[in-house]
Write the structure tokens for this entry.
Amino acid sequence: MHVPHGARRPGATRVTLLTEGTYPHSHGGVSVWCDQLVDGMPDIDFDVIAVTGTGREPLVWDIPEQVSRVVSVPMWGPAPAGRPPRGRRRNQLTAAYERFVTALLDPCAEDGFGPALYVMAAAAADGLLGPFLRGDRATAVLTSVWNRPGLAVREARPTLHDALTATALLEHALRPLATPLPEHGVAHAVSGGVAVLPGLAALERHGVPLLLTEHGVYLRERYLGYRTAPYRWPVKAVVLGFFRLLAEETYRRASLITPGNRYNRLWEEQGGADPEAIRTVYNGVDPSAFPPAGPEPERPTLSWAGRVDPIKDLETLVRAFALVRRRLPDARLRLFGGTPRGGEAYRERCEALAADLGHADAVTFEGRVDDIKDAYAAGNVVMLSSISEGFPFTLIEAMSCGRATVSTDVGGVREAVGDTGLVVPPRDPAAMAAAALELLGDPARRRSMGEAARLRVIEQFTLRQTVDTFRAIYLELSALGRIVPRDPWTADTGVVVEADRAQDARPRSLAG
């Protein structure tokens, strides 16, 4: 779905935001960040390529005039139009796909991932990749590869059903390659994973510099999510191999990587990113938009705000609250935030857990709130129970509102909080309950922590700092000009093209 908007302005710097499941079709912290970035730069022309679910998702953000167009790329909607490849193109694509899946399954063949991916990207641009992956030949290639002697996946006895399932998952995951690619300016992927595919293809095809910002660690979250996914190990080996090698290719090729915290930086360096190409840029808020929250509730209350999702681990929070209530029978737990489509079963599971523990009367899921400040003001202490985070907006917003916090030690949480809140291990209800009780029992300490938290935000985590930093990055990357591209169809897909890696050169002046 293409949504035209404001007209492009001659001479303006152009940035294409690459998103997945967030801006401008969804609420949440990453969407807030995107909206702040776009809204804060009226001098920059933006396009948005948004990977969505079905393509029917409505726009939930007001789109400013500097956004020229929004392109929705549905991963699970109807199959994109195209035609099966024939003749030489079919043979080239078959060879590239064989090299691609071999890289996913054979540690000795991982160098083939990038060259094969770019041949497949060129096929996607011509409408050939999707029909190929939906045909019998692609399934036969995978079946042949993972039954080769010596591959670990062979020991799991993969079936034809596994091959069909894995091929279908790859076909959906690779659909973003078929979207019209940015040809000028800067491509800015605001997460890793499938959102970055058009950016890698635009770098390869048109020489557009790629900027990567990871809020959470996309690869880590895929590992966590696939632990309970309903697939056999051969399928998981293919899909997780794809996400791992895609992350490594992105880290190697990006002109600059701007993680939101030092924790993410460690993952990126481990994945092959050049440390000189990484600069940590913290999220920021406008302290005037999140002023001190005012009087606390009279009844002891824990509040939480966010997206109702397993990654937020609300079950641990509910279990911790049950322990709190043993000491403070009058306590309440108020949870604010929407439930994404498909997440209703998780919310119901959390509600059922509260009921099973005997606390349904004190645990309330209150949905989206018109003013998020009300969610922070609703608690004496604001909680964060996630098992994965980047640099969470809800945390620094609550800090700006002067509320004491209890948070899990994930991602950039400890960097955000410093000594102005309590940090506990993830998935540990007892530790979380003990921290909450410690603050609920000490009003003077809560007040002191809240005041220190707001001062920390004002000094280190303002929105103005974030926007100014990214504007400077956009201008400097744009000034680099296009990186010399090459045509993957003319390359020998059986040869690693190290000689062409001159296009991987990164702007050292941006490193920090």
In short: The chain has three domains: 2-80+179-282+475-510, 87-171, 301-460. Residues 491-512 have pLDDT under 50 and may be disordered. The chain is about 40% helix and 10% strand.
